[in-house]
## 1
Amino acid sequence: MMSSPGVLLASTRAEVLAVHRALLEAEQVAYERLFGRVSGSGELLKLAIHDPWFGWLQPITALIAAMDELVADDTSDLDQCVAQFRSTARDLLRADEEGSDFHQRYFELVQRSPDVALAHGRLTKALAGS
């Protein structure tokens, strides 16, 4: 049975968000090794937005924001938008040691962090079924 576009969007968003969270947490650990403890989620959010250390995560942050905008906009062609987001997520969230800077860093964290690897696996499985 095929899922509705809204269900596909929600599940895609949830899996992309889980990958983002795992990446952010893995980068926080590395950041704290060099610069000291991050005092809380508010400081981490500020760092994620403003610190160049976390800047490479911007493409996945932008994808999540675009999904959120789509949920709020009920005038768009949901089927087409969901298909586009899922395609973008497949292209962006692939671990490729020969790819762009983002893909190489993503590859490194998939290899280094069990949490990132698990989130990546769940996302890959979710994106494969459509």
## 2
Amino acid sequence: MPTIAEFFGISIMLYFDDHFPAHFHAEYQGKEALIRIKDGKVISGKFPPKVLKLIEDWRRIHVAELLKQWENVKNFIPPKPIKPLDK
């Protein structure tokens, strides 16, 4: 599971050969959530509102990059790191 970004204790990963819809995995304090790339909807998992806000802020900045990386991992091409959120 390649980690593509880390910020404020949050890790963002894309998994090879993952299922649709296009999404990323976020981990925070031992918990995991799946977040849809297109609109930021939480597919599964639960985080505190502050953590979800940070993830959403980051996702909005990087939607195009995330979709490109999603296509790469679907084709077993290793994803490249995406700039973390810095506040």
## 3
Amino acid sequence: MALNREYHSAVKSLLLQGATGSIGRSTLAVVREKSKRFRIAGIAAGSDLRGLLEIAAEFHVSSVALHDDAQAGELTAAAKQLGIDRVYVGPRALQEQVAAEYYDLLVNAVMGGAGLRTTMSALERGKSVALANKEALVAAGPLLMKTARAHGAAILPVDSEHSALYQCLLGERADSVRRLWLTSSGGPFWGMPWDSLDDVSVERALAHPTWKMGPKITIDSATLFNKGLEVIEAERLFGVDASRIRVLVHRQSVVHSMVEFVDGSFKAQLSVPDMRLPILFALTYPERATSDLVRTEFDRSFSLTFEPLTNELFPCLALAYAALAQGGTAPAALSAADEIAVPAFLRGEISFTAIARVIERVLARWTPRPLVDLETVEDADRMAREMATEEVQRVRSRASMKCC
């Protein structure tokens, strides 16, 4: 009991990177409700200066970081007015903030490969990370997990699916697990043949049936690439072979994931879809905090349905399994290629189904290398982006020739 009293009396300092995005905003909502338990020590963003300053003023942060160095002067002047004297600006700003500032927990809600170095820096300091950055685990999961173990830090998943698995596995033996089941809403195009989606608009692809997210992750959900990343993440986090990680379509998004045990029984974590719940779990772990932010009303009737999903229905999911089987730097190449292909679709340069073709062609050209260090991962990321850019140009050229 003494341990519990000590835990409750301490205020946990958070460094929130990606503060202006959807996960960042949800984290701030949790902190507002639990203001006696958490303090936002520092915040960081990519280019949303106005959003960053609004958050800084509300939460009286000690430091701010912004990736966009074109706004350095404006940020420095505004921070001075707010009484903030520790300002980080430029491509290395987020990593410098992680390495220099005091905090108890890094909340990494940065999108893309930019979250890799910051996660590693925090773990090397022995700081636990509440991780919403999928790409870091996908590209360099074995390196990050090894570093976390070496420095006594924890990687606490913020994804609803991996948070569910984490909760279901607490107190269970590794050899008692038969399979992990990730659930998927199926996105806006579930039930439609893949070859019928070539001409879908950006607007239709962004119309996710369940979650409100940024455009990149929403498109990844529509192609099920996001679910492929989650398969790789689960393999990294829980040490379960990909052959024992399955995906089910669950349109209601109430069951967030399940663990199947060797005796045939299942454990699942359920709630209405709301990212504030896995965030709350990560921030308060190893305890559960009383909260009214998310309420699931079981005093009314509703149904839960599950449908099998085969990799062939969504090529991006199959590509993720293929990259994991290749190993080494292949998952990093997979992630980097998608980061080129999706923005190309959002800009109207390639079709929806061409996203998968670009990634497939990059993987077909790829020669995996062992994951030796972060430099290896970053080299792979750079090379894969160059390949993907070439493939986007090829797809555009062919489309132009067809039109003419």
